[in-house]
Design brief:
A: alpha/beta, Rossmann fold, six-stranded mixed sheet, 6 strands, globular, B: alpha/beta, FAD/NAD(P)-binding domain, Guanine Nucleotide Dissociation Inhibitor, domain 2, seven-stranded mixed sheet, 15 helices
């Protein structure tokens, strides 16, 4: 095993309801896809180890758990994110138009120390639908928006077919790691509430 | 909206969020709404700008205090007993995975005009000036009795039925002095007044055992733990649990109006011209003001400081209990302090709270003994609010209203209210007998 320290990176996935955020996460982590749409139930955060060159990263990928549907994500969801993935559906213009809102909401809630350079990645999902015939957002338009927001990396994906998903998450991992501060941030020593130490016995049995 | 739910929860206070989480896990279809655009309701944690807006009516706080987002100022400051009911709820629901905790540095008590540490180890107990040598011996015997007491083992009862013998009579058997009784009753058993002395001793003994177990659990300087980023994390964590199990969340919904049918049973909730139907409503008192009655007022001072509370050995997180008798009041006063070490303020800043039940028409003045313990203060705010309890009959109208949070700096009453409401709503008892050692063993697999 590599003696290098393992890096835990928090990645959050934002976007309108129904664009495929949960499916992307499941495709990447579990290699699964479900056609049955239900506003997200049961999705939480998932972790996956990613090896890039000789380095191992642990990605902690946070889904919105459906709370984005009525703009009801709390500040705790955003805290500590190392990279923000913005997802839209290439077949739904409104989901692309709302990327701006999601990006701004993230910057307000997360308050990163360097907002100009915080790493975003944009995914245009569902490129498989109708063999591409119902597409309404052109790749050119999407790339132009990404360029205008500080050259955000852009990937076109299909969670259903697994197209480009790994490449997208590799980019996400690299950018998240670049954002990780060099010096260790102030980390209070926390305790494990769910585990805990064996209780000290009171009085000996002898 | 314009849908049908089994339960609609109004207000995202901690109690409401725990219930929302539990009910969603049970498979009920839950809609959870709040008039604010943030989670927590009256139990939220505010950033600096939110604090300024609420108490000063200004949009922006002074720049010299640091970044607004670095502050998480609790509106309901409480510490968690490490082995207490709230920890058991967190473990039962697996909500601990969304949270990080740190032990609280110290627990202190105000006795004879001085702040004294509540001993956390036998060594500290021996050195403590709280008791003289002979009193320590008597207290040691009492603590041993409590430690050994097992309701199911009559040999440990020493001939006393704690379901009948009062606390006062039990303590009299050990010959303890007034100040010791005060210290044990308020700083260890965490009673908020002296009524317990005339009640059966069982409750007090169980509380003392909980204190000892919590102290032993993480072997810190106190029996308390507290989440990083403040208590506002707790409602959000339970809300996420609810969402993961299908709960629907709508913040920023003004004027949530509860609708009733001709029989007086709840039928739905209307907001912004849309109505969601439901069978039951769960809410905090502010959403159904005609079904609650006032039961008192809480007075609280909130201070931003640049130093720890004096005489607490530079503790970065600390509780000081001021027993009622020491102040000549009817109920205790609580001082609670946390800081950048729990990520609730920028580096070098401390947030302190002084809380008590208001007993006069001049609550701010009542808080002065606690404020005097703080030392120099950068900013001071006062929050005086009424407490309510429900007076409706849930079996008739299907409305389940929580009781307002009290002034104590621990969560016992909060969880008891939640558990009682859960039973009323579902007819089921929540089994919280989490085996903490089993949790540890499971983790090691």
């Amino acid at each position: 095993m590599s003696s290098r320290r393992r890096v835990l990176l928090k990645v959050i996935i934002l976007g309108d309801s129904g664009v495929g955020k949960t499916s992307l996460m499941n495709q990447f982590v579990n290699r699964k896809f479900s056609n049955q749409y239900k506003a997200t139930i049961g999705a939480d955060f998932l972790t996956k180890e990613v090896q890039i060159d000789d380095r191992i990263f642990t990605l902690q990928i946070w889904d919105t758990a459906g709370q984005e549907r009525f703009q009801s994500l709390g500040v705790a969801f955003y805290r500590g994110a190392d990279c923000c993935v913005l997802v839209y559906d290439v077949n739904v213009m409104k989901s692309f138009d709302n990327l701006n809102n999601w990006r701004e909401e993230f910057l307000i809630q997360a308050s990163p120390s360097d907002p100009e350079n915080f790493p975003f990645v944009v995914l245009g999902n569902k490129t498989d639908v109708d063999g591409g015939k119902s597409r309404v957002v052109s790749e050119k338009k999407a790339k132009a928006w990404c360029a205008s927001k500080g050259n955000i990396p852009y990937f076109e994906t299909s969670a259903k077919e697994g197209f480009n998903v790994d490449a997208a998450f590799e980019c996400i991992t690299k950018n998240a790691f670049k954002n990780e501060p060099e010096e260790e941030p102030y980390l209070p020593d926390t305790i494990d509430v769910a585990g805990g130490q064996q209780q000290r016995s009171t009085g000996c049995e002898c | 909206m314009d849908e049908e739910y089994e339960v609609i929860v109004l207000g995202t206070g901690l109690k409401e969020c725990i219930l929302s989480g539990l009910l969603s896990v049970d498979g009920l279809k839950v809609l959870h709404m709040d008039r604010n655009d943030y989670y927590g309701g009256e139990s939220t944690s505010l950033n600096l700008n939110q604090l300024w807006k609420k108490f000063r009516g200004e949009e922006k706080a002074p720049a010299h205090l640091g970044s607004s987002r670095d502050y998480n100022v609790d509106m309901m400051p409480k510490f968690m007993m490490a082995n207490g009911k709230l920890v058991r709820v967190l473990i039962h629901t697996d909500v601990t995975k969304y949270l990080s905790f740190k032990a609280v540095d110290g627990s202190y008590v105000f006795v004879q005009g001085k702040v004294q540490k509540v001993p956390a180890t036998p060594m500290e107990a021996l050195k403590s000036p709280l008791m003289g040598i002979f009193e320590k011996r008597r207290a040691g015997k009492f603590f041993s009795y409590v430690q050994e007491y097992d309701e199911k083992d009559p040999k440990t009862h020493d001939g006393m039925d704690l379901r009948r013998v009062t606390t006062k009579d039990l303590i009299a058997k050990f010959g303890l002095k007034e100040d010791t009784i005060d210290f044990i009753g308020h700083a260890v058993a965490l009673h908020c007044n002296d009524n317990h002395l005339h009640q059966p001793a069982y409750d007090t003994v169980m509380r003392m055992k909980l204190y000892a177990e919590s102290l032993a659990r993480f072997q810190g300087g106190s029996p308390y733990i507290y989440p990083l980023y403040g208590l506002g994390e707790l409602p959000q964590a339970f809300a996420r649990l609810s969402a993961v199990y299908g709960g629907t969340y709508m913040l920023n919904k003004p004027e949530c109006k509860v609708e009733f049918d001709e029989e007086g049973k709840v039928s739905g909730v209307t907001s912004e011209g849309e109505t969601a139907k439901c069978k039951k409503v769960v809410c905090d008192p502010s959403y159904l003001t005609n079904k609650v009655r006032k039961i008192g007022r809480v007075a609280r001072a909130i201070a931003i400081m640049s130093h720890p509370i004096p005489n607490t050995n530079d503790s970065q997180s600390v509780q000081v209990i001021l027993p009622q008798k020491q102040l000549g009041r009817k109920s205790d006063m609580y001082v609670f302090c946390c800081s950048y070490s729990h990520n609730v303020a920028p580096k070098g800043k401390f947030i302190a709270f002084v809380s008590t039940d208001a007993e006069t028409d001049n609550p701010q003045t009542e808080l002065q003994p606690g404020i005097d313990l703080l030392g120099p203060v950068d900013e001071l705010f006062f929050d005086i609010y009424d407490r309510y309890e429900p007076v409706n009959e849930p079996t008739l109208d299907n409305c389940f209203i929580s009781t307002s949070y009290d002034a104590t700096t621990h969560f016992d009453t909060t969880v008891v209210d939640v558990l009682n409401m859960y039973k009323l709503i579902t007819g089921k008892e929540l089994d919280l007998s989490v085996d903490l050692n089993a949790a540890s063993a499971a983790e090691e697999e």
